[in-house]
Write a structure and sequence with these properties.
54% strand; Maltoporin, Chain A; 6 helices; 22-stranded antiparallel beta barrel; mainly beta; five-stranded mixed beta sheet
Length: 762
C-alpha cells in the first residue's frame, strides 16, 4: 500500500538513481524545445513538473526537503543569461562578486561566501557540473549554453556534496544526448559589438549509442575606456566545446563519456575610480586625463598590460548499473585542469608604480564518486557512497614597480610568491528516508570528511629588483576530520502540499593565509555552519500555481573571510581571517503561475538578515578613527562588528517576469513577449563595512519580443537589458595605493544593452 501510494504521488519519477524511467509527462517537458518553454503556457495551463538531482537521486522538486532554486535552460535563454555572473538577476539570495581575475571572484548564498585571492582557501559555495565537484570557483565559471537546468541549493550541503559547500551549491546540469537527430544554430548581435554564435547537434549513431556536440564563440568590445592609449578594457573573447557520448549496452546499463574545453583571452578585468583619496599624484594624472570619479565612471588612465588568459578542460566517465532487485550503482570518474594567467595595472596611473600585478594559476583535480541507491519504492529509500577528491593547485604571483617610493632611476621593488597546495579529501556518506506512512517520512544523512592539506609558501624578489618585504620560505600541513549531517521530517497534508523541517551541520576545510602580503603561513580554522529550515512546497489550483516558501536560520562558526586592512605603514594589504561567528536568517519564496490565455508569471523573493553575532577582531577600514570605532593603529587596528550586517548580503532580493504568447494571423506563426525585473536592496561590499563601499539598492528591467514558427523550426527576437540604465558596482573597495579613495568593479549588467537573436532548428 505504501509503495503504491508513493509511486502514485511521485507520478512515477524514479528516486533511486540516475538510470531511470521517468513519466511520459516529465519526459515530454524535458524534451520540449527550449523556445516552446521559454515564456509560453502552451495549451496546458498547468505548471510543468520540475525534476532535480539535489539529493543525488532523481526526484520531483516538490519532494525535495531543501530550498532549491531551479533555472531551466529555457529560462536562461528567455532572459538572455549567458554567464554565471548574471544568475543573480534570476535567483534571489544568490550573488556574484567580480574581481580583476577569476581567482578573486566568488559566489555567496544567503549573504555568505568567501571571495579571496588566497590559493590555500576555497569558496563557501560549491560548484558542481554534471555531478563533478569543481575544486576552485574560478574554474567553474562556464558559459551557460546547452544547459538543461541549474540548481541553486541554499544552505549547508555537506552531507551529499562534501567540503566547501558550507553556504550552498551551484549545480549545473548540461543537456544529454538523444536518439532522435536534431540540432540548432543560434546567432546574436548586441551592444558593444557583441557577437555570439552557438550551435549544438545530437542524435543516435546506433540503436544504443547517441552523441551530443555543442560549442560557442563569444566576442564583445570592452566598455571601459583607457584614456592613455584608447584601449578598451573588460571585453569578452572566449570559445568552448562540449561533447557527450551515451552508450546503453543493455536495458539496465548506461555509460556516459563527456569532455569539454573552453578558452578565454580578453583584456579584462579592470576597476575604475569611484572617489579620490589623499594620493595627489593619482588625482593629478586622472584629472588631466578627463576622469571624473563616481558610480558612472567608465574611464581609466593606464600604461600597463591588462589581460586574462585561461584554459579549462576535462573529461568524465559515468557508469550506471541497475540490478534486478532495483539497486542502482553509479560511478563518476573525472579529471579536470584549469590554467589561468592574469595581469592588471593596479596603480591606476600611466606610471611604473605597480604595472606588474600578475598571477599564474595551475590546477589539476581528480575525483571519484561511487554510490549505491535503493529501489525507488519501499518504506526505506537510501543512497550511500564513497567520494575521493585529489587536487594540486599552484600559484605564482608577482608584483613589480616603484610602489610610490623615491627610487634611483632603473631601480624597482618587487615580490614574487610561489604557493603549492596539495589537497586530499576522502568521504564515505549515506542519506536515507523512512516512510512511516503515505503522508509522513523522516530523513537523515551523514558524511565523514577526512581531509589533508599540504601548503608550501615561498616569497622573494624578481631577478634584477630589490626585495619588497621579508623573504618567506615555509611549509605547513593540516588535517581535518569532521562529520557533517542532516535530519528532518516531511508531512503531506494533501496531495498538493508538502511540509518539511530540517537541521543540518556543514563543514568547510581549514587553510592558510597564503597571500602576497602574508608574513607567514598563519592557520585559518575550518568554517562550521548549523542550519535550520522549515518549508512549504505546493502546487495549487489544478497545478496552475506552484508556490514554495522557506524560512531559514544558519549559525556560522569561524567564518572564513578575506579582509583588506592597513599595515604598519598605512598600505592596504590583504589578509585571510576567521571572522568570528555570524547568523543569517530569513524567508524565501518563489511562484510559477499560469494565468491562461497565453499569460504566465514567475516570481521569487527573499528577505535575509545576516549579521555578525561575535566579531570583535575585525580589521578597521582606511581613515577609520577611534570615534568611529577603530581601536589601535596600523596592522593591529581592530573594530567590533558584533551586531553589524555582513557584506554582500542585501536584505531584500527579488526577481519577476511576465510572459505572453499568442498565435498570429499568419498561419503557423506565434508571437511572444516577456518583461523581467530584478531588485537588490543596499548592501556593503567590503568585509570591514567601510561606509564608502555601500552599494545603494537598484532594479534591472529587461524585455524581449519576438516571433517563432509554431513547430519551432526558427525564431527571431529583439531584446533589451537594463532598460532603466541603472548604474551599480559588484564590488566597491579602498583603492590599493590610495586608501582614502575608493575603486569599483562595474559589471556588464550595469550597461544598457540592446540586441537581436535568431535561431534555426533542424
Amino acid at each position: 500500500m505504501v509503495e503504491q501510494t508513493q509511486a502514485r504521488r511521485r507520478k512515477g519519477v524514479r528516486r533511486g538513481g540516475e538510470v531511470c524511467l521517468v513519466p511520459a509527462l516529465v519526459l515530454a517537458a524535458a524534451a520540449m524545445p527550449a523556445s516552446a518553454q521559454t515564456i509560453s503556457a502552451e495549451a496546458d495551463d498547468s505548471v510543468a513538473e520540475i525534476v532535480v538531482t539535489a539529493q543525488k537521486r532523481t526526484q520531483s522538486l516538490k519532494e525535495v526537503p531543501l530550498s532549491v532554486a531551479v533555472v531551466s535552460g529555457a529560462q536562461l535563454e528567455s532572459r538572455n543569461l549567458t554567464e554565471i555572473s548574471q544568475l543573480q538577476t534570476a535567483t534571489p539570495n544568490f550573488s556574484f562578486q567580480g574581481g580583476n581575475n577569476p581567482r578573486g571572484a566568488g559566489l555567496t548564498v544567503r549573504g555568505v561566501g568567501t571571495n579571496n585571492f588566497s590559493s590555500a582557501i576555497e569558496g563557501s559555495v560549491g560548484i558542481v557540473i554534471d555531478g563533478v565537484v569543481i575544486g576552485r570557483q574560478g574554474a567553474g565559471f562556464t558559459d551557460l549554453f546547452d544547459i538543461q537546468r541549474i540548481e541553486v541549493l541554499r544552505g549547508p550541503q555537506g552531507t551529499l556534496f562534501g567540503k566547501n559547500a558550507s553556504a550552498g551549491v551551484l549545480s549545473i546540469v548540461t543537456a544529454d544526448p538523444k536518439q532522435d537527430w536534431e540540432g540548432r544554430i543560434q546567432a546574436s548581435y548586441g551592444s558593444f559589438d557583441e557577437r555570439i554564435l552557438r550551435a549544438s547537434v545530437t542524435g543516435g549513431i546506433t540503436s544504443n549509442l547517441a552523441m551530443r556536440l555543442s560549442g560557442y564563440v563569444t566576442k564583445r568590445d570592452g566598455y571601459i575606456e583607457n584614456r592613455f592609449d584608447s584601449r578598451r578594457f573588460n571585453d569578452r573573447d572566449e570559445w568552448g566545446l562540449r561533447g557527450k557520448l551515451r552508450w546503453d549496452p543493455a536495458d539496465n546499463v548506461r555509460v556516459t563519456l563527456s569532455g569539454d574545453y573552453s578558452r578565454r583571452d580578453a583584456s579584462c578585468c579592470i576597476w575604475t575610480l569611484r572617489s579620490f583619496g589623499s594620493n595627489a599624484g593619482l588625482r593629478t594624472t586622472a584629472t588631466a586625463a578627463g576622469i571624473v570619479p563616481g558610480p558612472d565612471n567608465r574611464r581609466v588612465n593606464l600604461d600597463g598590460p591588462v589581460f586574462i588568459r585561461q584554459d579549462a578542460y576535462g573529461a568524465a566517465l559515468q557508469v550506471e548499473l541497475e540490478a534486478a532487485n532495483g539497486l542502482t550503482l553509479t560511478s563518476i570518474t573525472a579529471h579536470r585542469w584549469w590554467n589561468a594567467a592574469d595581469n592588471n595595472d593596479a596603480d591606476q596611473q600611466p606610471l611604473p608604480i605597480l604595472n606588474l600585478n600578475n598571477g599564474d594559476s595551475k590546477q589539476r583535480q581528480f575525483t571519484q564518486e561511487l554510490r549505491l541507491a535503493s529501489p525507488a519504492t519501499g518504506t526505506l529509500q537510501w543512497v550511500a557512497g564513497l567520494f575521493l577528491f585529489d587536487q594540486d593547485y599552484d600559484l605564482t604571483n608577482a608584483q613589480r614597480g616603484t610602489f610610490g617610493s623615491p627610487l634611483p632611476p632603473g631601480v624597482e621593488l618587487s615580490r614574487q610568491i610561489f604557493v603549492e597546495n596539495d589537497t586530499l579529501n576522502m568521504a564515505p556518506f549515506a542519506d536515507a528516508s523512512l516512510y512511516l506512512s503515505d503522508r509522513f517520512n523522516l530523513f537523515a544523512g551523514a558524511r565523514l570528511n577526512i581531509e589533508q592539506l599540504d601548503t608550501r609558501f615561498r616569497r622573494g624578489a624578481l631577478p634584477g629588483t630589490t626585495q619588497l618585504g621579508t623573504v618567506v620560505n615555509q611549509q605547513a600541513r593540516r588535517s581535518d576530520t569532521y562529520v557533517t549531517w542532516r535530519a528532518g521530517a516531511q508531512f503531506r497534508p494533501t496531495e498538493a502540499v508538502v511540509l518539511y523541517a530540517s537541521v543540518a551541520r556543514g563543514f568547510k576545510g581549514g587553510g592558510f593565509n597564503a597571500l602576497q602580503d602574508s608574513p607567514q603561513l598563519r592557520t585559518v580554522s575550518p568554517e562550521i555552519p548549523t542550519s535550520y529550515e522549515f518549508g512549504i512546497k505546493s502546487e495549487l489550483f489544478d497545478r496552475r500555481l506552484r508556490l514554495n516558501i522557506t524560512a531559514f536560520r544558519t549559525d556560522f562558526r569561524n567564518f572564513q573571510a578575506q579582509a583588506v586592512a592597513p599595515d604598519a605603514n598605512g598600505t592596504l594589504v590583504f589578509d585571510v581571517i576567521n571572522a568570528g561567528s555570524l547568523r543569517t536568517q530569513g524567508v524565501e519564496a518563489d511562484l510559477d503561475f499560469r494565468l491562461g490565455n497565453g499569460f504566465s508569471v514567475m516570481a521569487a523573493a527573499a528577505y535575509t538578515d545576516a549579521t555578525y553575532t561575535n566579531f570583535t577582531g575585525a580589521p578597521c577600514y582606511a581613515g577609520q578613527t577611534a570615534a568611529l570605532g577603530c581601536i589601535g593603529t596600523g596592522a593591529t587596528a581592530r573594530q567590533d562588528l558584533t551586531g553589524k550586517p555582513l557584506a554582500l548580503a542585501p536584505e531584500f532580493t527579488a526577481s519577476a517576469s511576465i510572459g505572453y504568447e499568442s498565435a498570429l494571423g499568419a498561419a503557423g506563426l506565434k508571437g511572444f513577449a516577456q518583461l523581467s525585473y530584478a531588485y537588490r536592496s543596499r548592501s556593503f561590499t567590503a568585509l570591514n563595512l567601510d561606509p564608502r563601499t555601500i552599494q545603494p539598492g537598484y532594479g534591472l528591467a529587461d524585455a524581449q519580443i519576438g516571433i517563432r514558427h509554431a513547430d519551432d523550426r526558427w525564431r527571431l527576437w529583439v531584446w533589451g537589458k537594463n532598460l532603466g540604465n541603472q548604474r551599480f558596482a559588484e564590488t566597491i573597495f579602498a583603492s590599493p595605493l590610495d586608501g582614502a579613495g575608493t575603486s569599483q568593479f562595474i559589471p556588464m549588467t550595469a550597461m544598457r544593452q540592446f540586441g537581436i537573436t535568431g535561431e534555426v532548428r533542424f
